[in-house]
## 1
Amino acid sequence: MSASAPSKSEILANGLWRNNTGLVALLGLCPLLATSSSAVNGLGLGLATVLVLLLTNTTIALIRSFVPNEVRIPVFIVVIASAVTAVELAMHAFLPELHKVLGIFIPLIVTNCCVLGRAESFASKNAPALAALDGVATGLGFTLVLTVLGSLREFVGQGTLFASADIMFGEAGRMLTVQVLHDYRGFLLAILPPGAFIGLALLIAGKNWLDARTNARTAATPVEAGCTPEAHARA
Amino acid sequence: MLFETRTSPHVHLGNSVALVMRRVLYALAPGLLVLIVVFGPGVLVQLALAAATALACETLMLLLRRRPLAPFLGDASALVTAALLAVALPPLGPWWLIVLGTAFAIVIAKHLYGGLGYNPFNPAMIGYVVLLISFPLEMSTWAAPRGVGGHVAGFGEALGLIFGGHGDHVLLDAVSSATPLDTLRTQLGLGQTVAAVRAGSPVFGWIGGSGWEWANLAFLGGGLWMCQRRVAAWQIPAGMLGALALISTVFWIAEPARFAPPWFHVMSGAAVFGAFFIATDPVSASTTPRGRLIYGAGIGLLTWLIRSLGGFPDGVAFAVLLMNLAAPTIDQYTLPRAFGAGRA
């Protein structure tokens, strides 16, 4: 449909880093801020979102040629709601503990703007295979931010990492839990909502700083080589 | 011939940031002295810890932001934040409490928002509130004031408690007591009347809290001097204490058993200190004359609401932060009419 389909590496780079939902597009902030109180919660919700995005992007790319343009949004929403319901029921059945912890935020994936956003801006214009890849890349980018923010808040807040990992990975998960700081008093602020906002702001600032540094380096290289028009003009 | 033209102000006070900050420190001094007498030398230790942390964090952030060190370190604004926190935090609190609070105030609440003059919230109160919601136990363990049953920790004992941790429970219990507002809150929750609570506990003095009222009087003196020197805008403390007195009078007349009298509200907790030293921060407060009255009154009302109906014994810090949020909007609607302009 679209004139030039984006390359696979471009899709991956956009989803994971350059257009990261959590750090750049700032979509789906409500679940991002609310469920990132620990690494396991973040990872759990992130993986659920990956699954939803994979299902919705693939389905919408498959039906894109016969969905009338005028009613596409309601159609997309029905697809998304069905996918979320399926994922929620599956989590309720197989990961009841995690389902209990994440609670309302699993059904609320329906309202995550990034799911509808990917459907509208990518899946409805591209082939199913690419759309599926885009869904996974976007979802993993979201999961990355959720897990990093969750780990950060959990570490500062209670001095552990991947505490109660068994609710997600079963008994074997207990080995994942790391008590990083012993006899730690705990810093409640990090686990409370302000910690989410401060932590996310620091992550965004960190990404912008990294990008600025990378840009400065790539911009500086040709000038040093002395073969740009500007360098010649200066000479 | 061309005459030199100059824009207003043609006569000004010769104020500078450094002068204003130094005057705030002078005005704080009597109150700090009373606190040291009443609560022991622990206050002094906290002040030293806060000042050292504040200067270190300020230097670090200025270096990171590539700003000149001398003008910003020399204006003493970091020291004011440190002194305010030293007054606000428990005198025998562990050392990491005040270090963490001061660092948070300077690094996050001040410099990450753009440094002096750009912070939308009062840095000292951000530091205080962060500690209050993160470490409620440490923050509510106050030293017992002189003359109230327990004994005042000496210099050695204070150092031991601040740096050695609170493991020594016997000593800690001997030198700490619930604050007047805390006692009032707990006992009212048990169904007592205000009069019975105040008669039944030695922490209450003849107006506010025993010992606390002297510190508050000293802060009142320092604050009035700041207003007279135009370091602080008089409208803010007037609005705040006025509103606090007004609303507490109304409820005290209606139901004296459940609500404390106005003089108690004004002279206990952080009311006077907050009104003159916290709310008047020129950066985060409202800047128009009428706006300052409204801003102050808002803080007074919120303080009373949080004290009487909320979940915390005192509410000055939360009230100041909430009104900081409202200050830009208040300014927008209370701009003074320019001379000659029509009424809006």
## 2
Amino acid sequence: MTTFACNQDLILENMSDVETNLDLIQWLGDDMSFKVFSYLDNPRDLVRASAVSSSWNDFVIENGLCKQLCLKLIPEISGVVRSIEVDYLFKVDGNNPGYYYAEKRELLNRNHRVYAVLAFGLIPMNNCISQAICASSTNDHLRESYTNTLEPRDITEHGASYWSSIGQTDPSVTETLLYRLYSRMCLVTDIHVQPFQGLINGSSPIYSAKAIRFRLGWDNDPMEIDSKFGLRDKTAFSGIWTYTSPIFPMSQENKLQHFKLPEPVLCFGGFLQVELLGSVQKHEEDDLFYICISHVKVVGRVLSQNFIVRMRMFPPHGACSVQYFPHAHTRWCGCGYVSNS
Amino acid sequence: MAEEVSSQMNSLSISETNPSSSATISLVSGDDIVFKVEPTIAKEMETVQSFIDETDGKITTIPLPNISSHDLPYVIEYCEKSIAGKITKEFEAEFVKKLNNEEVKELFLAANYLNIKKLLDFLSQVIADRIANKSVEYVRRYFGIENDFTPEEEAKLREELAWTFTGVDPDDEDEN
């Protein structure tokens, strides 16, 4: 400051502007406005603020306030910023459908919407799996179905609860389990798997796998999945995996084993495949190798049911658009997407 | 509060003839009311303090033409509590209860002008609380902002992110 009087004049001049047309953001400058807006912790408030006037719109969008809030509310989003901003894996309805944004402002507009949806729509879920779809093989469809793996307990009032593969002479055979997640867009951070421990003739073998790997992706034809549902077992999944995890060793221990993905994954499509790579335990009675799993759990966030996710059916696969429906839906006709409400 | 102000005014007219009282700082509001405060209070107001420092403490009467005598006592009250280390959630809740929307805005502008960091932080939260869950129309009225979108632009904005425009609080003019 040079002289006090000089500063006074400046401020008085500003004050008269303020009185005729007070725009808080213009008057306070970016730093103080930023301070006020940083106290808003609901993305809906930020989006509404962006509709107040063009200067508020510029301020909220150009400063990426929705992204900042999203990262504050869901820190694990920072691991998927690349797939959101560089790979343009999804759009919010009403966006420019193009994958290239000529203007910086267009890209900022897009990010504003995308991060607002993520910050608001991604809700934490204890287990993101909604449905067990099929297994590569099942020993006994009545007592050892893959649907048992959604039950956290390994013993219920109906007896032991687990899935068992068929017996194999070759311990290197890979078995798979296929699941549908609650929404077609999920943020997955961890997958927990518990092998099953049997009780036979006084011994208690644990039928774990040697190693485990996870794939996330989508099916070409979700309708087909539903029709195949009756077929029980399926060796080849016709879907496209957009994510494949590293191979994790599995221990032969009867506990919920935690497999943390190296980075959180934004999964489009809503399908999870658990690959059980090789077996370690022979069954005493028939001398064959089995893999048995009592529980599978996906830790992460699912998209609120008020948002409908549409998959892009041409390359790049896995991209999708998100559309808002004010009333939670129970069935999205036409794409075979069934949500459990 | 009015009585307190007038008593402070009286003490000022005495102090002006009494050079020994130069230890205190006189803050003159925009409507020419004088508030005498301890130098420690002035320290909380960075704008005032830097003025004092620049004049080597020779000038202790400081005009604050854009702060009214209505707002200045609130600012002083907050600074006094702040120095005494008595800013509690309870105090802040009581403090903000006394203020209507217009007063919050004026105080924010005053705190910004005087550069009182703690008061600014607090009022930022208060203003954010008054934007939170309010309709766009309410926010425009609250901040006196002209809607400069064309009807087409506004309709497009609302359509694109329809989910943010439902379920807001009713538009009461003033919650106090």
## 3
Amino acid sequence: MHDKNTHALVSFTLSAILIITATAAVTIGAELHAPLKSWLASTFSHHWIGKSILSFAGFLIIGVGLSLLPRSFGKLLPLLYVLLWTVLLSSLAIIGFFYYEAFLAVHP
Amino acid sequence: MSSIFAITLSVHVIAGIVGVIGIFAIMMSLAGRRSSLRFLKITSATTLISFLTSWFTGGYYYVLRYGSEVKPVIKAGDNPWAHALFMEAKEHIFLFLPVLAFLFFLLFFLMGKEVLANQKYKKVTLLLAVLASLIALFITFAGVLISGSAQ
């Protein structure tokens, strides 16, 4: 199944892996590092709008960009499994972080 | 609540539920012995449109009303964790769903026949649908909890 359709799917799957990881990292990072959250708010008018735009637009731009390159970066089947684990671990990281913030962290 | 917020919140919920049903339908179709590619194409397209609609309308309500009028009520009430945990998790994990929905759309439209014919591809696509369904369920549950805590 080595054709342009597979190449496109490899590209967008890789993009999804990168963006979902980045979204989780920026989400937690913005809570721990106030200047990052402030930058998102001042650049995009609201920190969540910034994360929204960066995640979906980033996903599309990276996916299209990789699709236009002549070579693929990996095989689709293992990448889909990497995506599966990325989504699972990123979701658990976000839930775990906010659980910690809500119930365990001591806020001054 | 003004009518524009009532409308956007209602569209957000309805579109979100349609998206959840769509993800579930994809999961159940892939889990069955015979999956209809036509059904998967239509459902994945509907799911993608629904999640994008829920995203924009929810974002409008969240940015313009939730932060200033709803969040303070929840945080001052009996269940401040409804915002601190469930809203915070919901608003960020939700960002994964349009990405996953787009990927399902591409999978079924670009190589749907191969996905259904190859058990390895079908299995991993099913696993992704199961995970997306669980995420969608969590987000729905969180939304109900948040709404209840704001009463």
